[in-house]
Design goal:
This protein has a four-stranded mixed beta sheet, sandwiched between helices. The protein has helices at 3-15, 32-44, 57-67, 85-94, 96-103; strands spanning 18-22, 49-52, 74-77, 80-83. With 111 residues, it is α+β, with helices and mostly antiparallel strands. The protein has one domain: Glutaredoxin, CATH 3.40.30.
Length: 111
């Protein structure tokens, strides 16, 4: 991974409270796992930014090295790596994802 790709990833994560590295875009996901994470985030109603790794092979490989995680999508919340589709799905089903987003001040907790 080049230093410039690492810096770009770091900047995206720092500048966007909820950052999703995915295949495709939020409007046109290019894989089922990326689509599922987008659906979860939209269902929760959280604003998020995406980066399409398919349009940039260096970013696609760089994010895997950056996170030490072999698969995409990858979700970051307030700079913290959360995980991929399975982890995000499990956290959403248990309510843990919504709690984390509320705790970080990104969404308001449903009382």
């Amino acid at each position: 991974m080049s230093a410039s790709v690492g810096q770009r990833i770091q900047s995206l994560i720092e500048e966007n409270p909820v950052m999703l590295f995915m295949k495709g875009t939020a409007d046109f996901p290019q894989c089922g796992f990326s689509s599922r994470v987008v659906q979860i985030l939209n269902h929760i109603g959280v604003p998020f930014k995406t980066e399409n790794v398919l349009s940039d092979p260096e970013l696609r490989e760089g994010i895997k090295v950056f996170s030490d995680w072999p698969t995409i999508p990858q979700l970051y919340i307030k700079g913290e790596f959360i995980g991929g589709c399975d982890i995000v799905s499990e956290m959403a089903q248990s309510g843990e994802l919504q709690s984390l987003l509320a705790e970080k001040g990104i969404i308001t907790a449903n009382v």
